[in-house]
């Protein structure tokens, strides 16, 4: 084991198409509670929570998800070492390079455990054993990946061909080769000879990864170094410089390094792993009733077997279905046979061509202070439900064109209106003329809920002017 704790590097990118409509670009699958009360990101963070073995995590995420990621970690009481914001997505190799560069500033030999934030692991004890084997190999400057013991001839995963066991390194094998996603016959052959699924998880020293990048992908490393050198601090985030980071090739760690390095090794791991890549995978992972159904939310099922039935919105009534997926949100209902759910991507692509907002955004829009949801809209009005977390504050601003009317539905509000400050209780209301500076604070210990009605020209459009330099935080 390394002398100092391992730093988990949690990668939270992705666009969220395979689990649409619950997962969307603004809130992809790792930020959703898919299998319980906690999200996949939260489950990942708890699995490697700070301890004698693990240092506080370093998280790399999309700029658009920064407030949700920060809030989900805060809810667990986990203070990350850093939350790094990617200005553009460049796949995993650049993201891991930035993390390695940051860790190497303090300790070049720091061990880093690279984890996707959107995977599920059922056997945490086996995972810990696998991490122990990998850490011992990483201490000898091996670049270690985790190969998953397969349960079926899966065509949706890449494969690792394991070589001979490494002398003196228990549970660790040489890597004989990598293969991209195979056809069914090739997948069956690989299963028969003992190949492993490629999990996309890694453990290595920062210095070892950087040395191989310098040798194998120097342009990528230089772009990441330049993006980090020009990074700026924004609240609790480290924002990478856009132009240099965009010059980094968009390439995975496997392709950039692991397929070419002579230092590679693999730890076979039977840990109940899934990349939670489809609705059918969630049916396989979920707790089933006597009819083989996974049922979540407000659902009534009759004569229905082997289905995944989920409602995050209206009542779902399923009658006479077999091997189907039904997922309802506040604005979308998806119905598909379980063996056709990969075509969800085609639906999202069609909606994007039509410029439909359902392809990209949820009805709820998250902000650092809470969230809001559009309830109704028209040519000259816009109605929203606004939720402020305890301590939440909408900073000073003014709407250029629309008049706003607020009614407190729950909690206590403190409203700054020009030079006037008022406190409002449930049922009380206030009007804010267009062009008037105003701010909103949650004045209570519980969540604040208000109903906002905007009227006038450009109602519902983001025609706010943020005041007192508040744009970055709000």
Helix and strand layout, with pairings?
Elements: E1 7-12, H1 40-47, E2 58-62, H2 66-76, E3 82-86, H3 92-106, E4 111-116, E5 120-121, H4 124-138, E6 143-148, E7 159-165, E8 173-179, H5 184-192, E9 196-205, H6 206-216, H7 218-229, E10 232-234, E11 237-239, H8 242-246, H9 253-258, E12 264-269, E13 273-274, H10 279-285, E14 294-302, E15 308-319, E16 324-328, E17 333-337, H11 344-353, E18 364-367, E19 370-378, E20 381-388, E21 393-399, E22 403-410, E23 413-417, E24 420-424, E25 429-432, E26 438-442, E27 448-455, E28 464-466
Parallel strand pairs: 1-2, 1-4, 2-3, 3-11, 6-12, 14-15, 15-16
Antiparallel strand pairs: 4-9, 5-13, 6-9, 7-8, 7-9, 8-12, 10-11, 16-17, 18-19, 19-20, 20-27, 21-26, 21-28, 22-25, 22-27, 23-24, 23-26
Helix pairs in contact: 1-2, 3-6, 3-7, 6-7
């Amino acid at each position: 084991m390394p002398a100092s704790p391992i730093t988990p590097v949690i990668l939270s990118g992705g666009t969220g198409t395979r689990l649409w409509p619950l997962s969307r670009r603004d809130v992809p699958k790792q930020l959703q509670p898919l299998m319980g009360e906690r999200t996949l990101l939260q489950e990942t963070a708890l699995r490697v929570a700070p301890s004698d073995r693990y240092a506080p995590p370093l998280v790399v995420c999309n700029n658009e998800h920064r407030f949700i990621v920060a809030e989900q970690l805060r809810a667990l009481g986990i203070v990350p070492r850093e939350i790094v914001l990617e200005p553009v997505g460049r796949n995993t190799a650049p993201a891991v390079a930035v993390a390695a560069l940051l860790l190497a500033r303090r300790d070049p030999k720091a061990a880093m455990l690279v984890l996707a934030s959107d995977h599920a692991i059922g056997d945490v004890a086996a995972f810990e054993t696998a991490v122990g084997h990998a850490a011992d190999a990483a201490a000898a400057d091996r670049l270690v990946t985790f190969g998953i013991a397969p349960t079926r001839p899966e065509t949706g995963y890449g494969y690792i061909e394991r070589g001979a066991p490494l002398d003196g390194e228990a549970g660790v094998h040489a890597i004989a080769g990598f293969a991209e996603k195979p056809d069914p016959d090739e997948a069956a052959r690989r299963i028969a000879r003992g190949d492993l699924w490629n999990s996309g998880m890694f453990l290595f020293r920062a210095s070892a990864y950087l040395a191989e990048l310098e040798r194998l992908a120097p342009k990528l490393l230089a772009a990441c170094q330049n993006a980090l050198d020009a990074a700026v601090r924004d609240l609790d985030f480290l924002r990478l410089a856009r132009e240099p980071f965009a010059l980094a090739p968009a390439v995975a760690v496997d392709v950039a390094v692991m397929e070419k390095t002579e230092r590679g090794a693999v730890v076979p791991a039977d840990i109940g792993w899934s990349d939670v890549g489809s609705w059918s995978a969630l049916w396989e992972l979920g707790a089933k009733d006597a009819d083989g159904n996974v049922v979540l939310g407000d659902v009534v099922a009759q004569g229905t077997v082997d289905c995944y039935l989920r409602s995050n919105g209206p009542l779902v009534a399923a009658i006479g279905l077999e091997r189907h997926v039904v997922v309802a949100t506040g604005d979308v209902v998806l119905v598909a046979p379980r063996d056709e759910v990969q075509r969800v991507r085609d639906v999202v692509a069609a909606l994007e061509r039509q410029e439909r907002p359902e392809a990209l955004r949820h009805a709820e829009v998250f902000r650092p202070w809470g969230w809001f949801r559009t309830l109704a809209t028209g040519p000259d009005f816009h109605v929203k439900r606004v939720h402020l977390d305890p301590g939440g504050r909408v900073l000073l601003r003014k709407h250029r064109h629309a008049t706003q009317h607020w009614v407190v539905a729950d909690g206590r509000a403190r409203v700054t209106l020009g030079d006037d400050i008022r406190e409002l209780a449930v049922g009380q209301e206030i009007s804010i003329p267009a062009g008037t500076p105003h701010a909103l604070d949650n004045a209570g210990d519980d969540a604040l809920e208000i109903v906002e009605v905007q009227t006038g020209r450009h109602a519902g459009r983001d025609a706010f002017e943020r005041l007192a330099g508040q744009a970055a935080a709000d």
